[in-house]
């Protein structure tokens, strides 16, 4: 199996996490208007009803003993959504992974969307391929901001900082400023992004790549997103955030603050989601190899079984289920070693959280991603990972029939 298909499978497994958190959300009466995601949830809801309904579409859920408010798209049928935005133009600035996913979903939802990117750049080309028309729905960044009522800043985080002197004067009173990450405004001492005081400033941060935002939408499902308000001038900022969340393809929306969103996001991706998992895979693989195990054995016992067999079970049914699906021998050892890994890693995670909180991670990211050579520098580092034996072992080729 190629690595590409492995990653695709892993992504699908990630998207299946949603039903677990959404399990208690839906009542049977609501099935008709629901996505596949919600229909899955309905099946499960008959087993574990634990929802406190407040108003339709807004639920208080019990997450391991902590009550949290969740917003869902069932409260926003398409006609209501289109009516809500009938006088708005969503000006999507930047057309990377999120711009693509959020923009196309909002456009397919019948919302008036335009795109603003650098003329002649990679994104300009990509946007045209996706059907955005120069002079009609595709403009320079400045022109799109001028035409938009809701300015969705989906430039790279480093570019948001670099372009702010040009963007800021165009965010005039009455417009809404939207982000998908708390990065720029929370770390304002480093980014210098300080929104004008007379505009609503809101956030919808999908919990997945923009490609997943698009894929789930096309499957009739919705991504989980965080929503937050930084500045509420109109008194309608939160409602607007929920509505845009639905427009760009969210299924369930979890309320947070800009600060908590950016802290948890930077921490999570450096930790278990990306950085820690690469470090842990590599450490395990290296010790197996140092003890004479073949590359295939070390790879199978580290990556293959994890991604193809066991981790999808965690995503679908939980850690206890995955443990139970394994042998008694495996279970005993895993139960004994889990607390050792936990204890060993807590100081590392504490150090990481502090590095996020004090802005060290932000400054590194701004410096690296602000370089003219950031794309080639990144490609070089990723190539180094790709060249590691563990990943080359995963791309085995058939030498004989
Ligand atoms: N990707 C994710 O998984 C994810 C998930 C949730 C939230 N977010 C957040 O969503 C936002 C957008 O992220 P993304 O991953 O979609 O985009 P990205 O790949 O980080 O940024 C791409 C966009 O930034 C533009 N850009 C870069 N440097 C520029 C400059 N100096 N001047 C003008 N434009 C410039 C690019 O245009 P050119 O093609 O012209 O260079 C492109 O349109 C960020 O705040 C990110 O943190 C991302």
UniProtKB/TrEMBL annotation:
Entry keyword set: Amino-acid biosynthesis, Branched-chain amino acid biosynthesis, Magnesium, Metal-binding, Mitochondrion, NADP, Oxidoreductase, Transit peptide
Tell whether GTP-binding is among the UniProt keywords.
no
Q: What class of enzyme is it?
A: oxidoreductase
- Subcellular location per the Swiss-Prot or TrEMBL entry: Mitochondrion
- MF (Gene Ontology): ketol-acid reductoisomerase activity; metal ion binding
Q: Provide the reaction this enzyme catalyses.
A: (2R,3R)-2,3-dihydroxy-3-methylpentanoate + NADP(+) = (S)-2-ethyl-2-hydroxy-3-oxobutanoate + NADPH + H(+); (2R)-2,3-dihydroxy-3-methylbutanoate + NADP(+) = (2S)-2-acetolactate + NADPH + H(+)
| Cofactor(s) essential for the protein | Mg(2+)
> Which amino acids does the record list as binding Mg(2+) 1?
265, 269
What InterPro entries does UniProt report for this protein, alphabetically? 6-PGluconate_DH-like_C_sf, 6PGD_dom2, KARI, KARI_C, KARI_N, KetolA_reductoisomerase_fun, NAD(P)-bd_dom_sf
Question: Which is a Gene Ontology cellular component entry for this protein?
Answer: mitochondrial matrix
List residues binding substrate: 327
Q: Which SUPFAM superfamilies match?
A: 6-phosphogluconate dehydrogenase C-terminal domain-like (SSF48179), NAD(P)-binding Rossmann-fold domains (SSF51735)
Q: What is this protein called?
A: Ketol-acid reductoisomerase, mitochondrial
Q: What is the lineage of its organism?
A: Eukaryota, Fungi, Dikarya, Basidiomycota, Agaricomycotina
